[in-house]
Sequence to fold (512 residues):
Amino acid sequence: MIGRVVAVSGSQVVATISEDAGSAERVEKGQLVKIPLPQTHAFAIVSALSIPMPDTPVRLMELALVGECRHRGDGGRFHRGLSAYPALGDPVLAIEPRDLAAIRGAEGPETIPLGALHRGSGRIVHVDPDRLLGRHFAVLGATGSGKSCAVASILHTLVERGTQAHILVLDPHGEYASAFRDRAVVLGQDNLELPYWLLTGEELVEVVGGGRDPGPQRAAELLLDFVARAKGAYRDANGDHRPAVDAPVPYRLSDVIRLIDEVVGRLDRTESVAAYRWLKNRLEILSRDPRFAFLFGGIAVRDDMARILGTLFRIPADGRPITVVDLSGIPNEVLEVVVSVLLRLAFDLAYWSRGRIPVLILCEEAHRCAPSDKSRGFAPTRLAMARIAKEGRKYGVALGLVSQRPSDLEPSVLSQCGTVLAFRVTSPHDQELVHALLRDDANGLLDFLPSLGDGEAIVLGQAVPFPVRLQFPELSSELRPRRASPSFSRPESAEEDPIELLESLVRAWRRR
Ligand SMILES: Nc1ncnc2c1ncn2[C@@H]1O[C@H](COP(=O)(O)OP(=O)(O)OP(=O)(O)O)[C@@H](O)[C@H]1O
Ligand SMILES: [Mg+2]
Fold:
């Protein structure tokens, strides 16, 4: 016994700490305790400790009740919430390993191990992947706090357990390519295929404008008009029915350019040809630019959308359910368009499959895709993200959002995440945000945020029975996502000729 209840109000309990508890069991904030009641064991987290009057030996612990195990009926399973409350004078006990076994989440074929419970003598907390993914999850924390390693660990486990999910990792820094080896296919600048005809009008206008230069005002309007006509021409040649304006049906870029020429030929002299010229010029530049080959490459237009989707989302998975989309080589000005297309395709795939093809989208640097500042970023990307956040679970599209700047992430998207893995947070601004987001059910655990170690997180929400502090498993170096971390003290590769290095980087620089 470590104490006795002296006050109860709602789900808060105050208990004295027994004088002899100090030697046997140190009571710490964040620790789990239990209170035996006639029908149940109530469980609580120590949320604060104090000595109210410094000159007396009275020591107090504040407890937040989190749930209970019933003595009879359901095999001692843990339930959130309480059917009975402690009374004054009830003893407070330290928990034993068998209690942890009951509350760590039912371990079974369908659960996956997440991490080791803090002060839980190596006890691993298991979670149900349907709960973790089904309601989306967010991984927040300062740079270097262990977010990407934890994500890799979760994905490794999901794959080992034979997940049904098709996993798409949006990897802006190209750090996951090596982490999954034979479990993933890496698509990058060289082998990503996202033909221009999959783009909506808005996305195409953004690409053609290069993100910076919107061109003459009428150009966007003209482009959409010509695309509609080119789609018509392709359809007539192939005998399809009339597609909706933004439907992902093929058309030929050469038809668009030919149509521009035709119209320009028929214009009378008073009309300006500037918009037409600009448009044709941009389309020709883009279709020749090797950096954009993933969009405009491939001379023959084929209606092979099923194959493209199959490649992107690993259908069939063939034991490699993960696609890592290495975005590090994608030209910056179209990065958000590419993410927009991928998010849209994932949602539509799940939508049209009515949930038969579940997809998990793991989005690193999520604050770039859905920034809280509405004036930044590409609006359709934000919309695609918001749509998955709001409606994805109905159709089996899960989001895993990773961000080191949670305060820059659109709050409405973040608030849709049912489970939050909060790693070390150092900036006061971000701490405030995480507190505001989660305070209600964190039971004081969030006070640990600035002092968590690498790979340590507070996990709260749908996936865990109550907020827990976990240590994620130590990943061996070949399973870790690898961000280049240049050394200032050791030469990385002594053999490399510095002149050759310079030459090759200048070549790459110019190509970009
Ligand atoms: N679970 C873990 N297993 C092994 N090493 C880890 C683990 N967690 C963190 N580390 C160590 O901490 C470093 C940083 O971890 P990680 O790359 O996951 O941080 P991050 O939160 O993703 O940072 P950033 O926001 O900059 O991407 C790793 O390179 C590794 O050395
Ligand atoms: Mg990272």
